[in-house]
Amino acid sequence: MNLVVWCVTGLLFAAGLAMTVLRRQLLAMLLGIELMVAAVNVALVHQACLLSDAQALAAVLLILAIAAAEAVVGLSLILRAFRSDRGIEAGGFTELHG
User: Fold this and answer.
1) Residue 34: pLDDT band with limits 50, 70, 90
2) Which of 7, 8, 26, 83 is the most interior residue, by most CB within 10 Å?
3) For residue 77, which of 41, 30, 14, 21 has the smallest C-alpha distance?
């Protein structure tokens, strides 16, 4: 069971990394980052349950809250870029101004 959890976590993290590195759309990159954070949380929850560690489960809740805030900020930046007719391709952003 332990090996299965680590394999699934590794596959999720690899999929998120591939999505972040290989895709050019900002939304796909943000989803890849969220997938990587979720994979790390799965691994942390599994280890916390194995060791009966309540502090690790509290850390998971903190990581989930930070990931939700990161998603809100990322989506608002993507919507702002889309509305300003700059597009949502990552290659078009060389500078962050006006």
Assistant:
1) very high
2) 26
3) 30
CA gap 26, 13 in Å, rounded: 18
Find the Cα–Cα–Cα–Cα dihedral 46, 44, 63, 14, rounded to 10°: -100
25 φ, ψ (degrees, to nearest 5): -80, 140
**Gap between the Cα atoms of 78 and 96, Å rounded:** 12
Read off the tokens for 2: 């332990």
Q: Is the pTM of this model over 0.85?
A: no
Alpha helices in 24-89 (DSSP H): 26-51, 54-83
Task: Please count the structural domains in the chain.
Answer: 1
Domain that holds residue 67: 2-89
Six token digits for residue 83: 């509305």
Which carries the bigger pLDDT value, residue 40 or residue 93?
40
